[in-house]
Amino acid sequence: MTYFIFIGDMFTLEQRAKMQGLFSGVWGVSAIVGPLLGGFLVDQISWPWVFYINVGPGLVAAALVWLTWQDKARDTASAPKVDYAGAALLTVGVTALLMGLFALGTAWGWALLGLAAALLAGLVRVERRAHDPILPLPLFRDRIFTAACSQGVLAGWAMFGSLSFVPLFVQAVLGTSATAAGATLTPMMLGWTFASIIGSRLLLRLSYRTLALTGMGLLTLGAVLMARLGVNARQASLLVNLALMGVGMGLSIPAFLITVQSTVRPRDMGVATSALQFSRSIGGALGVSVMGAVFSWRLTARLAAAGVGAAVSVDSLLDPVARRASSVVLEGSLRDALAGAMQGVFFIAVIAAALGLVATAFAPRGRIDQLVAQRAGAEYRGRPTPAGASRQ
User: Fold this and answer.
1) Of 43, 134, 341, 360, which is the most exposed, with the fewest CB atoms less than 10 Å away?
2) DSSP for residue 33
């Protein structure tokens, strides 16, 4: 998240578009290598190594930051005051919301949701009075920012919620290995990376809204095709569907990010960028929790309808290690139950993506340079005329 803020603060619009594409390429390479390496480690060694493998690169990254980072001393009198109350309310409120969604349908879950609502309502009240709020509420009066955050929540819900279940679908329904499940995500990452690079360049010629609408349309189409997959699905079809979703994210995410960074006030660039990243993260977390609840409910119901609910535990179906230990074979009604439950999950992704497309349609029209010029003119007209001067 930090490097997105650096890009917005250090470079012009033209340079910013190119740098976003470059950083998207770096992220894309990492996103391709990660699932493949993770699947290989699970198959060949053991699953804890997907965490141990990150220790080395994490230490190298920390050393690079420590050795190369050069920060300038700043006047402490002019430094912004940290909004500790807002940060605490936001953190605890979102945590309570996610925990309540994971326990949805229970008394504890409803209590957590009530607590989350109270904390987030308190956050709004605190942010209205804070001198330097962690989440400036006036930003939400900006149509571009509001549309971008709404799209971020819904696109993150559809994309990251789906991705959480794709490896399970590939392993349990299609019967492949963990390495093959990791490789299934490669076309999505490639599509996301190349679309980000190309889309960032096209922002200098086309309307950001056109690119964002195109991207959300492709994301919705990919989600619809994913919801149609069943036990007889071919892995090639799955790869195409995920590639469409990846291209959709690659076109829409940078379009909104660069537009927001170019149109907000310089002092709000950091918090606006962070809010966009947070919207996608919270959307993915909400998607995983809600889609997980739907998946569990549909799977239990389908197992009971097939008459195998008492004979086979849900854990033995979802955990590949447990399947091997119990010699459970996913055939016939078991695979049908899992595939049917997955279709319900991907249908939730269709709804989220379609709503994200609608939210994108509410974004203002125009190219970024036109919007920047309009806002600069509006700010100039809003300034008071100095004494002794006249406006032409």
Assistant:
1) 43
2) H
How far apart CA 150 and CA 70 sit, in angstroms, is 36
Instruction: Tell me the one-letter amino acid at 132.
Output: D
Those residues with Cβ within 8 angstroms of residue 14's Cβ, 6 or more apart along the chain or in another chain: 204
CA 235 to chain centre: 24
| Alpha carbons 336 and 315: distance in angstroms, whole number | 16
Averaged pLDDT, 56-81:
73
List, for residues 213-261, the tens digit of each pLDDT value.
Answer: 999 999 999 999 988 887 777 877 888 888 899 899 888 888 888 888 8
Contact 36, 178 (CB under 8 A): no
Cα 246 from Cα 203, distance rounded (Å): 18
Positive or negative, the Cα torsion across 21, 23, 26, 27?
negative
The one-letter amino acid at 377: G
CA distance 379 to 14: 22
Residues 6+ positions from 86 with CB-CB distance below 8 Å: 123, 126, 127, 130, 133, 134, 135
Nearest to 225 by CA among 176, 188, 178: 188
